[in-house]
Write a structure and sequence with these properties.
seven-stranded antiparallel β-sheet; disordered N terminus; about 20% helix; alpha+beta; binds FE2/S2 (inorganic) cluster; Rieske Iron-sulfur Protein; 2 domains; 2 helices; four-stranded antiparallel β-sheet; about 180 residues
């Protein structure tokens, strides 16, 4: 049904009456806004609803990882079973895996590296680039060395570096803080 002029007029009158009533209580503009927000749902008036990134929970590592690989759950200390199909690629130089909060790679030299996977610029996940033998964030192009130091910005702070050690048989990688 199309609203009649009478209905529109009634609605405008109601709106005016509500505002006038609130103002008659001596409320400031801010208080009035708060009142309206409460009536319409708080999120509708939130200042930060469009700019705050939603934190992504750290994924649980696939089978083959034992221990804590999540920096939000305390000190990093885990082992990776390199015979497990999920991580056996890490036996090959130039390969990497995201494990919990970390990026773990077998560099060109054959050494293992473990760094925070979170770009210090705006928090995107970094990757290992075999061709350059470095760590790269393709969001804005930051580049890090294999120790986590910034080579190219916009990032200014290094990635956190973790210790790695390989078992004598080459099948178990241990990563610690
Ligand atoms: S988030 Fe990594 S370079 Fe901006």
């Amino acid at each position: 049904m199309k609203p009649t002029n009478q209905m529109k007029s009634n609605s405008a009158t109601e709106t005016m009456k509500r505002g006038e009533f609130l103002r008659s209580l001596g409320l400031s503009t801010g208080a009035l806004m708060a009142f309206y927000c409460m009536g319409t749902g708080l999120t509708a008036c939130s200042k930060s609803d469009s700019n705050d990134p939603t934190p992504t929970p750290t994924p649980t590592p696939a089978a083959g990882v034992t221990g804590n690989a999540d920096t939000s759950k305390g000190a990093i200390s885990f082992t990776v079973d390199l015979t497990n199909a999920n991580y056996s690629k890490l036996k090959t130089s130039g390969q990497y895996a995201i494990i919990g909060s970390l990026i773990v790679a077998k560099a060109k030299s054959g050494s293992f590296i473990a760094l925070s996977k979170t770009c210090t610029h705006e928090g995107f996940e970094v990757k290992y680039r075999a061709a350059q033998d470095d760590i790269y964030c393709d969001n804005h192009g930051s580049e890090y060395s294999l120790t986590g130091a910034v080579d190219v910005g916009p990032a200014t702070k290094p990635l956190t570096q973790y210790k790695t050690s390989l078992s004598a048989d080459g099948n178990t990688l241990t990563v610690t803080a």
